[in-house]
Amino acid sequence: MAAKAYASTVLNAPADQVWAFLRDFGNLAEWMPGVDTGVIEDGGPSDRVGCVRRLIGPGDTVFRERLCGLDDSDRSYWYEILESPLPIRDGRGRIRVAPVTDTGRSFVEWRGEFSADAADEEAMRKTLSDAIYATGLGALRKRFS
Question: What CATH number belongs to 3-143?
Answer without folding.
Answer: 3.30.530.20
